[in-house]
């Protein structure tokens, strides 16, 4: 569930980001801001769909709590993935490997601790949220210090339209193959 929730808002945008950042490395920060914005809107849409679904079905309180945490988790998860795309497109693989290693090692250690404390599914998902948020913050710092993003949150209407247009075709086929 978690992986698919993170994939849906990015369908169509991953290829667009990689292609455009590889073409114009100096514009990577602009692509980061705009694609992150579009993806975060997609996260809201996914969460609303999941909320609607949960109104029609009956699950235990633990599953509902875990899904709520997962719904929150997709927001930093999307930014982590976009950061990795941009860094890889700029041939900066070392920080991606370092952040991933740190995040995964922390997740394993904290998940074992959560399971030992008998926190159940909610505890494990909370660990995922904590470690993904840590990776999110690390990437924001790396992008800022590395000179990739000058200022976070600055949007470009023309680029937003290109992102929507460039991503629409990939989204259609990506969604088609995901559902197949």
Structure in words:
This protein is mainly α and 180 residues long. It has 7 helices and no strands. It is flat and about 50 Å long. The two termini are 16 Å apart. The model has no long low-confidence stretch (mean pLDDT 86).
Give a quick summary of the entry.
The chain is 82% helix and 0% strand. It has 180 residues and is mainly α. It is flat and about 50 Å long.
The tally of beta strands, per DSSP, is 0
Q: Which percent range describes the beta-strand content? A: under 5%
Q: How would you characterize the largest beta sheet?
A: none
Secondary structure category: mainly alpha
User: Which regions contain 5 or more consecutive residues with pLDDT less than 50?
Assistant: none
Shape: flat
Properties at a glance:
180 residues; 82% helix; single chain; 7 helices; mainly alpha
Topology:
Blueprint: H1 2-7, H2 13-23, H3 28-56, H4 61-89, H5 93-116, H6 120-145, H7 157-179
Helix pairs in contact: 2-3, 2-4, 2-7, 3-4, 3-7, 4-6, 5-6
């Amino acid at each position: 569930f978690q992986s698919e929730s993170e994939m849906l808002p990015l369908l169509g945008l991953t290829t667009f980001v990689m292609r455009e950042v590889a073409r114009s490395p100096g514009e990577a920060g602009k692509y980061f801001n705009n694609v992150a914005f579009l993806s975060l809107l997609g996260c809201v849409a996914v969460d609303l769909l999941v909320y609607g679904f949960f109104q029609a079905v009956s699950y235990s309180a633990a599953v509902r709590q875990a899904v709520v945490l997962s719904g929150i988790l997709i927001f930093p998860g999307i930014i982590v993935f976009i950061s990795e795309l941009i860094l890889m497109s700029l041939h900066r693989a070392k920080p991606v490997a370092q952040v991933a290693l740190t995040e995964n090692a922390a997740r394993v250690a904290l998940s074992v601790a959560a399971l030992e404390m008998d926190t159940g599914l909610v505890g494990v998902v909370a660990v995922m949220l904590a470690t993904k948020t840590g990776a999110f913050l690390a990437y924001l710092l790396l992008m800022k210090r590395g000179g990739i993003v000058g200022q976070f949150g600055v949007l470009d209407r023309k680029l937003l339209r290109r992102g929507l247009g460039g991503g629409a075709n990939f989204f259609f086929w990506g969604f088609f193959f995901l559902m197949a």
